[in-house]
Amino acid sequence: MNALTPVQQAFRNAMAALSAAVNVITTDGPGGRCGITATAVCSVTDSPPTLLVCVNRSSAMNAVFKTNARLCVNVLAGEHEEVARHFAGMTGVDMDERFARHTWGQSAQGLPLLEDALASLQGRIVETQEVGTHSVFLVELDEIATREHCTGLVYFGRHFHQLQPVSAA
């Protein structure tokens, strides 16, 4: 691996100061089944509901997402830190075992859904742009489910943190 330039290191340090929701992006189809932990997910518009999802081009799973052309963003709740670690490749667990260790269902479109995710957003990749080291997918959503009264999971300062909901006064 090449050493980072000072600008690249400064960028990474700045991004470590940017809190981000933790998600497991999943897919299944002709290219196979896989999932990855990602924080590079954001809303684009609600007309039609569209997300932006970034996946590293050097990841073997990048091609799987492109082949399947459908994905699900599983927004992780606070109790899902272990799920995040498995799907980030931090635990050395293979892909089949990652899915076996947690309660996964399957959507009508055949996508893996984490049954107790804070939210699941399913859709099709309608556009892909290659930007530097990543593929940027624009995903039009066709199914959205949410769960209330949960803690959230964020990544900040290169560590996972739980967020507690604020109770209404």
From TrEMBL:
Database matches in InterPro entries: Flavin_Rdtase-like_dom, HPA_mOase_red, NADH-dep_flavin_reductase, Split_barrel_FMN-bd
Alphabetically ordered keywords of this record: Aromatic hydrocarbons catabolism, Flavoprotein, Monooxygenase, NAD, Oxidoreductase
GO BP of this protein: benzene-containing compound metabolic process; pyrimidine nucleobase catabolic process
Record keyword NAD present: yes
Alphabetized Gene3D superfamilies for the sequence: Electron Transport, Fmn-binding Protein, Chain A
Pfam families listed in its UniProt record: Flavin_Reduct
GO molecular function: FMN binding; monooxygenase activity; NAD binding; oxidoreductase activity, acting on NAD(P)H; riboflavin reductase (NADPH) activity
Ranges of residues in domain Flavin reductase like: 15-162
Record pathway: Aromatic compound metabolism; 4-hydroxyphenylacetate degradation; pyruvate and succinate semialdehyde from 4-hydroxyphenylacetate: step 1/7
Alphabetized PANTHER family for the sequence: FLAVIN REDUCTASE, FMN REDUCTASE (NADH) RUTF
Family recorded in the similarity comment: Belongs to the non-flavoprotein flavin reductase family. HpaC subfamily.
NCBIfam families: HpaC
Protein name as annotated: 4-hydroxyphenylacetate 3-monooxygenase reductase component
